[in-house]
């Protein structure tokens, strides 16, 4: 049953927004600037100790944000469901897939993962590097950053087609020296009814999955990961905006985590060069996406009954 709550007054929203905004901004500066400073030292000398310190700073950064969620946004109810077959640990190595609906999804992932898994990096757009402090920190912390090229750009310079793959491969390989969680929003963009209609998506609650990023991650890291984790995020009261979340206007967040078995044949193929393997991989991923779509439908029905 969806909860009915009294809406806060404008003054209450402004007060909460100012308080939360101040803490989040201060937290970003307090942790982001040291990460940038230490990151610059790597221009002269690579140091595992610097990498470890930066990861600890990033985890503290997330912990402060999570404290705000628990204390200031205490009205938001969290329903976190973890499949019994999935064993998570802070020193593990995980590849994670997730549906994508809002900028809030990254915050939800960090909230759920902070006490259960290693620091989560995710495939992100290169343009995010221009976000002050946070964008540069993403790069230093080893987030795979992808440049999107149009078909006309690739036609003029075919090398662009492989440039992202080379950069992503390099980022993935660098993760192997430490525990990690590598997140892939497989839809490649946030879900909206307009995009769903435009794609003619065969799924009720999801866009069509883009298999390339996951296939690349599995080909590089698959033999050395503890699990392929599938995270499903559902907002029973409607998909929120980022501001709505930090204003405490999201009544409920549901998160489901399950383990997906990786078939042995996935480690033996070449997604980029083998058309038959690519078709087989896409079919396998489509089946997982059908399961995810059914799970979302079940969760929505549960909270609307």
TrEMBL record:
<dbReference type="GO" id="GO:0016746">
    <property type="term" value="F:acyltransferase activity"/>
</dbReference>
<keyword id="KW-0808">Transferase</keyword>
<protein>
    <submittedName>
        <fullName>1-acyl-sn-glycerol-3-phosphate acyltransferase</fullName>
    </submittedName>
</protein>
<keyword id="KW-0012">Acyltransferase</keyword>
<feature type="domain" description="Phospholipid/glycerol acyltransferase">
    <location>
        <begin position="94"/>
        <end position="236"/>
    </location>
</feature>
<dbReference type="InterPro" id="IPR002123">
    <property type="entry name" value="Plipid/glycerol_acylTrfase"/>
</dbReference>
<dbReference type="Pfam" id="PF01553">
    <property type="entry name" value="Acyltransferase"/>
</dbReference>
